[in-house]
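Now read these lines:
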Amino acid sequence: MSLLCETPNPSRRAVLTTGGALFAWACLPRFARAADHRDPRLIVIILRGALDGLSTIGPLGDPDYAGLHGVAKLGGLAVGPSMPLVIRGAAPVLGWAPQALPTPSDALAERVLDLYNHRDPVLAAVLQKGLDADRMAMSDQLDGSTMKPYGGLANAACMRQSAQGAAKLMAADDGPRIAALAFDGWDTHVNEGGATGRLAKLLGGLDGAFEEFEKGLGERWKDTAIVAITEFGRTARVNGTVGTDHGTGTVVLLAGGAIKGGRVIADWPGLKPAQLYQGRDLAPTSDVRAVLKGLLAEQFGLSAAVLGDKVFPDSGEVKPMRDLVA
């Protein structure tokens, strides 16, 4: 199965036209699981737009990281209401911090505007323009079936919703064993931020999608592997709009009960000027096909020949990355 996270309600046509690529793969698990009594699942999440790996898994120990990423650099670990699944673990966690700020009613803005009309007409005129612009933006973005979220909270909600629906289908005994989802909004040229900003909100949505899979798959979670990949990386240096431009090296994220987690697998190339690819990008040291081959081999028992000739044609020189699955 395959879903695109472009609208909250993907059309039947979109699902059907994007589902063909993985149709053949969906039949493989029925043969593979007979040998070890497992019933494995694989979920591929495509982060469209290019994920900034240095702002996702920050190399805090590299002395050149802070200078390159500037105000967008990550600091130490902080535990709060947005604590990710990788830190929370399997046990439910509830903090003292409020989970969300209450949304003000429409009447509140009108009351404030009425107050300023009597006390400060100049400020009232500016507020009126802001309210008009907000209404115009909402009318453009909430136009029924044509709604397309622009990153941040709207896209985060879409990720959760898509994962929830996919998990429900995959939890069934006769449901699909392999799924692909695509999440938009990761092209963070502007206001990418570090611990806060667009990317932090998107990563919060991705973590929410992981959580929905964990809850929705139930007992199937222990045999599930999730891999989140992107097209390419982003520049090592932050640009003038607190964002990053298209680059080269990035990260692949693995999650799920079947994954041997709690680690970073990397041949770290360094961030000194001479170590950057073309003097600007994080240098790639692994092939994403090696990760995907490793997951397919360990989850479904596919041979190196099948992986190198059929799944990833003419890729025999790319060896599967081993020891990914517990």
